[in-house]
Amino acid sequence: MPSTTIHFIRHGKVENPDHLLYERLPGFHLSDLGRRMAEATADYAAADPQLSDVVAVYSSPLDRTRETAGIILDALNKVRAERGEEPLELQTDSRIIEAGNEFRGKRIGYGEGALWRNGNWRLVRNLWKPSWGESYQHIAARVGDFAQEKVREYAGKQIIAVSHESPIWSYRHLLETGHPEHNMFLRHTALASVTSITYDSETGKMLSISYADPAKDVR
């Protein structure tokens, strides 16, 4: 049975001294720690027989994911050069972008512009169904659309998709439980982690899911 694997990788830690909910806002880049996290995952990918054999690298269009993907791509292209293979180029896809959120630009905690001021807390009615932004159903559906398209396009091969916590976990939760709704505080998607989903290349059915956290000890 031919299979296709998509390795969903979360971006590294972001430089955010004002503790803002940055969502899809521009100008939020990897911190020094975030770059080290991405480098740890890049080293992990380059050393892994499966990950080092990917044929495409995708990213959400946001700065932090593109920077993470770029670091990983550099490591993979060094391996490809040693094999005499052509380098891969980064491709972006808006279907794996961060979830839309009505709280973008708000501060986490206290002070002017804090999340809980001006009645914003009233939007948080149900952690399993985010009334404050894009629904988990919509998030999982767009990631699933991306995945099924790539399973057909890269049948029998492997690719990387650098995305964000909510899209990765909402989609994984849908595949594992049949519904994308979940408690955001119970996600298992660490920064720079790798969630590998393998599909039947012919039917698109999920065969297995594995998880790795190469950057867990990075400080």
TrEMBL record:
GO terms, molecular function: phosphatase activity
Entry-linked InterPro entries: His_Pase_superF_clade-1, His_PPase_superfam, PGM_Phosphatase
Highest taxon listed in the record's lineage: Bacteria
A single GO cellular-component term on record: cytoplasm
Listed name of the protein: Phosphoglycerate mutase
